[in-house]
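Most newcomers find our protein records easier to grasp once they have seen one. Each record describes a single protein and holds just a pair of labelled lines. A learned vocabulary of local backbone shapes supplies the integers on the structure line. Nothing more is needed to start thinking about how sequence determines fold. The record below serves as our worked example for the rest of this section.
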Amino acid sequence: MAKRAGFPSRPSPAPSTEGLPLLRTWRVWRAIDELGFYPDTQARGLVSGRSRTFGLIISDITNPFFPEVVQGFEDLAVKHNYEILTSSTVHDPRRMALSVRRMIERSVEGVAVVTFGMEEGLLNELKSRHVPLVFIDVAPALPRVSNIRIDYLHGIRQAVQHLAALRHERIAFISGPMTLASAIARLRAFSQSMTEIGLQFNESWVIEGNHTMEGGMAAAQKIMAMPERPTAVLCSNDMTAIGVMRESYRQGFRVPQDLSVIGFDDIRIAQFVIPRLTSVRMSHVETAELAFTALLVDVQRQTASPNGSEYLLRTTFVVRESTSKPCDVPKIATRANLTESRAPARRKKPRREY
């Protein structure tokens, strides 16, 4: 029988296969490194049926609270081999609609909505696709929908008790936009805390803000123009509180001697303003952890809970230097008279007698 070209006339001994899989794997990874190859995640998702991508929708990327949440969420995503698709709505329904469309196009496995307001459009678009959702405070009891319930009352009660212990009786409150469920909840917690401790809840000392520094400055102007000026103010977020402090300085009021100021959220910059801001802490790290965990649990769950899931986030009170006992100052003060009052008294020359 003639030999076939390229083939031996009789079989050779089989080579040893010991360590062969490891060698092949090493050669594959070396080739990947040399060629600079990156796998196509979308193609891989089509094969596996999973995108390994979570959506994260926030209200306003310029508010320091939200980047801190995004960072915590992304850290967990990297740890669990997930990608995140982030969108900022700036409270604009049109941008919310675009965010929803992007999430659907990318076939996200779940969406966390950290906007502190109910987004009907998002819910209606995604619930029919059986995409796990996480909301803050306002999630309906539906399968694969989780709710992070924030205990606003715990931290706000501590803040009001702190001011009462410092002998403050006239306490103002600057809310967020009253179209947001979170703003209504914080105002309700403040009212209840004032009533519990026996302090007067004066509606004329409640000012609606917009969660920005400019809104805090505008609200401070209204407070300082009041005939019976409050000696302390609790703000619905830290950005508002920083705006109040800025306007107080501009008008010659001292914080905390003339006006004690408390924020809400305890963003990182609260530790660096002067004086350091006393605040009700709503942990951004814990918010991110609860949101990511809720999505991960629903993705891995075989049978959806019929009424969804609920997670609790408790607020706590952090005391710094922006609060103190009230001092007696004129109802309407100016930088000039406050500067004069702080100036050392001149010594009178002895009168000569002749």
About this structure: DSSP finds eleven helices and twelve strands in the chain.
